Amino acid sequence: MNTRHIGYVTTSISTHAGWDTLSKGIVNAVAKQHKTTVLTAKDAENDTTSYPIHAVLPTGISFSLWTQARIFVQCLRFLRHVDAIHALVEPYAPGAALAAWVLRKPFLITLAGTYCVIPTGSRLRDRIKRRMMVAMYRSASFIATGSLKNIELIEQVVPLEQRWKFVPFGIDLTAFQPTTDTRTDTPFVLTVGGLKPRKGTDMVVRALSLLKDKHPNLKYKIAGGFKPNTPFLDHLKRVIQETGMEGRVEILGRVSDQELRSLYTHCSAMVLAAQTVNGSFEGFPMVFYEAQACGAPVIGTTGYGSDYIIHPGENGFLIPQGVVEPIAEAIDAIVGDPALRASMSTRAIEEAARHTWDHISVHYLAAYDRVCSTPPASKPTGKNS
User: How far is CA 49 from CA 13, 32, 153, 266, in A?
Assistant: First the structure.
């Protein structure tokens, strides 16, 4: 394999949020093989990276023309000498795609979730965004996705012509592994993620209310950042009250890395009852591999990357979207059977170990080798927009 120089465009190299964690995993793994230069909106968590990071991109997540113009200029400034440009967040991709075309570099995209969808509305804003996104997809030499739903929705507007590949997200096993601490908590199930409708925490509360008599000590912990006084937080609190779950649901907010590992290790199961809400949906939930690496069985809904991660009955359960009862049944099956929970825990750790970022990076390394050996894409167009 020839040594390449890959330029990345992303939010940050950190563990602050999903995009940041995804970017850190991919770039750190690829940097073991190729030279890398990274453009970000925020500085890295520390200064120990082996590659240069330039925090020069806009901090706002936006497809606006002004944002894309700034991204375009910074890509021209810092990525002139790379062999390929890879956008790891969709809202930064149009500007990066145009820069790649001007510089005659191959362009690659990694898709995460909702932001990859092309708008179909008739407003001027939608039409401008649609033209930009169609152009970036047409110009991409390689598109990696952790969810087939992403491809399904994009191809309703523009054909991708087999330039995409399913590539699961990975896990850093140095950051996630079972802890050796002991907890005195009563049994609990866990959800990790921001308080958003698509995470389905209200569904889990309703499911657990069905198990109040059978598992009277079972609690529900929700870990993840949130803004106070939001409509969904108010809704969640109403559901907790209506179902009589006061005192049994803990909204923890953002927790430390050590506390998160401890929660994963000691929970009965990690539950993400993801739903599609007003066009917003989950892509590939990285929290499932984090949880599995710490030995937690996982429960997730079908239709997302969960279908790849979860092997029903072995390391967790897959359940349909929008139905409370199957969530309760899956939780009951694990909580009520310690032997099943133990076997699922072993299988979960094994599954995570097969999906380290070093394993996942093989897909990207092959893509870089291929696209850097072929002529760059033709000028992006907004046809069919």
Answer: 9, 11, 36, 32
Is 79 in contact with 114 (CB distance < 8 Å)?
Answer: no
pLDDT number for residue 376: 57
**Residue of 220, 200, 199, 202 lying closest to 211 (CA atoms):** 220
Residue 316: φ, ψ to 5°: 160, -155
Q: Which fold has domain 5-170+357-371?
A: Rossmann fold (3.40.50)
Q: What CATH number was assigned to the domain covering residues 188-353? A: 3.40.50.2000
- What's CA 305's distance to the chain center, in Å? 9
Cβ atoms of 334 and 297 closer than 8 Å:
yes
95-153: pLDDT as tens digits: 999 999 999 999 999 998 789 999 999 999 999 999 999 999 999 999 999 988 899 99
Can you tell me the distance from the alpha carbon of 140 to that of 148, in angstroms, rounded to the nearest whole number?
Answer: 17
Q: Which is more confident, 352 or 112?
A: 352
Residues facing residue 385 across a β-bridge: none
Could you tell me where in the chain the CATH 3.40.50.2000 domains are found?
5-170+357-371, 188-353
CA distance linking residue 309 with residue 132, whole number of Å:
32
DSSP-assigned letter for residue 194? -
CA–CA dist 39, 19 (Å, integer): 14
